[in-house]
Amino acid sequence: MKSRAHTMLFLGLVSMSIWQAGEAVYIHAKAWVAQRLIASAWDRSLATGAAVKPWPWADTFPVARLEAPRQGAALMVLAGASGRTLAFGPGHVDGTPLPGDPGNAVVSGHRDTHFAFLREVRSGDVLLVHSASGRMVRYVVSGIEVVRNKDVRVLLDAGDDRLTLVTCYPFDSPVPGGSLRYVVVATRRDAAVTRI
Questions:
Q1: What is the mean pLDDT of residues 171-187?
Q2: Cα 17 to chain center, whole Å?
Q3: What's the pLDDT score for residue 140?
Q4: How many C-beta neighbours within 10 Å does residue 38 have?
Q5: Which of 38, 41, 87, 177 maximizes the CB count within 10 A of its CB?
Q6: Beta bridge partners of 75
Q7: What is the pLDDT at residue 193?
Q8: Distance of CA 106 to the CA centre of its chain
Q9: What is the C-alpha separation between 91 and 145, in angstroms, rounded?
Q10: What's the sign of the alpha-carbon dihedral 51, 111, 107, 123?
Q11: How far apart, in whole angstroms, are the C-alpha atoms of residue 6 and residue 66?
């Protein structure tokens, strides 16, 4: 009887392990497919000049491509910064200019996925933004700070052309969200926007 209980316990643990491994594979596969669909939507947006959703039921679409060359990061920026959007990539905060446009373009992302590279960003680093209109704009990181999550000044127009990247802080916290935000400000350095 004891042997049967051990066998049942063993089979139960093996089944749970297989189920958990299957969940992990599913999540990674879903993320991989989503990134390919988002990249395809971006290519169609560039070709047509119109916003293209990555899948028919999506409530977002790519609005820019962000590169951090020193960190080896290249990300699609999506319209909106809802939790659902941030699951697929960094999101452009509504009410701020689009990345690459004049003013303070604000983009938010998760610290443990798409914006994990921000912990390696330093003052003087170059960030490149490719806009949906086919322009490339060069920014240089001019400031990094930690602010309270209610500090709205990061959203305000500062009188220059900048890209503000925001993520939760600290980076290694096991608790999602929190009361602090890590803010990277990059100022546009080239006066003329180049076509890509």
A1: 92
A2: 31
A3: 98
A4: 24
A5: 38
A6: 66
A7: 47
A8: 11
A9: 20
A10: negative
A11: 54
Closest listed residue to residue 105, CA positions, set 144, 61, 47, 66? 66
Tokens of 151: 């500090």
Q: From 163, 97, 93, select the one nearest 127 (Cα to Cα).
A: 163
Dihedral angle over CA of 83, 141, 158, 60, nearest 10: -30
DSSP string, 114-136: TTGGGGG--TT-EEEEEETTSEE
Q: Both ends of the chain: CA-CA distance in Å?
A: 72
What is the token pair recorded at 75?
């990300």
Neighbours of 19 (CB within 10 A): 10
Torsion of CA 28, 46, 165, 176, to 10 degrees: -30
Both structure tokens of 16: 């749970």
The predicted structure's pLDDT at residue 192: 46
